[in-house]
Prior knowledge:
Layout: E1 2-6, H1 23-39, H2 42-54, E2 59-62, H3 72-89, E3 93-95, H4 105-110, H5 112-116, E4 128-132, E5 137-141, E6 153-154, H6 157-168, E7 174-176, E8 195-196, H7 198-208, E9 212-215, E10 222-226, E11 229-236, E12 252-258, E13 264-272, E14 278-283
Parallel strand pairs: 1-2, 2-3, 5-7, 6-8, 7-9, 9-11
Antiparallel strand pairs: 1-12, 4-5, 10-11, 12-13, 13-14
The chain binds fe (ii) ion (FE2) (2 copies).
Amino acid sequence: MRILHFGDIHFWQLGLDADFYYPKRVLGTANLWLRRRHRFPPQLARDAAAAVLAEAADAVIFSGDMSTMSREQEFAEAARAFAPMVEKWGERFFAIPGNHDRYTPRSVRLGGYERHFPYAAFGAGERVRTADLGGLRVVGFDASRPYRVRSNGLLDQALEDELDGVLAAGGTQVLVGHFPFAYPGGAEGKWDHKLLGDERLAALVGRHRPPLYLHGHKHHRWALRDPRAPETLCVNCGPAGMASPDPAKHAGWVLIEVGADGTPAALTACHLGAGGEVLRAPLAIPERSSNP
Ligand SMILES: [Fe+2]
Ligand SMILES: [Fe+2]
């Protein structure tokens, strides 16, 4: 079975919201105006979505950051881009939100994510969802919440307990979150960008040992194992909407061939070439207990 994993497509629209005074929105708008709009060309995100739609895959998983500032127009454009994927893959299209989709308290309250992506909404009071993607048991969780300035997520006790309960049922092949808990070379995540409680996520994954943990957030395509959870291959799909001279950071996605028990057999890193063509390269699956 082939899984297509993408994320961080980051559709954006400049504009003024009622919570324009929220510190991160002020900073985010300035950053978008000065820098981010050049790094996330709108047409690139649209091209990536079209290329994802054309891929042959049995299931598609999006690991968060549809939007840039949780603006209504951003969600609407992402929903339009995802609609033909939902049509093509039906219940085998699985998505969770990222920190940019939980940008401000007001945007969370207004429920734009839930309105535009009803198929990716969580049950009342829940932050964990499960799905059967054609015999593949997938568990996704939402660790994103608004912070006044920073881009963190939080694995709090309630979310850890909820995840523990769902994973205890066993048989989970793929765990999907937005944030990494491990970085290449065993590096630490940046204090203002990491998942707070990432060491607890590492321990939780180590306890339940799903064959795959899929995430994004750090805009860099990679696959690694962490000594705290050596049975689990962590895959970062890289951004689908960012432009970079580095192929591992340029708009793309990852294809994952998995066996019936969810064991990953082969990975392919894909990114868009200058002419819009899809460039593919094998991504090595590291041995257990190694993190190069
Ligand atoms: Fe992102
Ligand atoms: Fe993110």
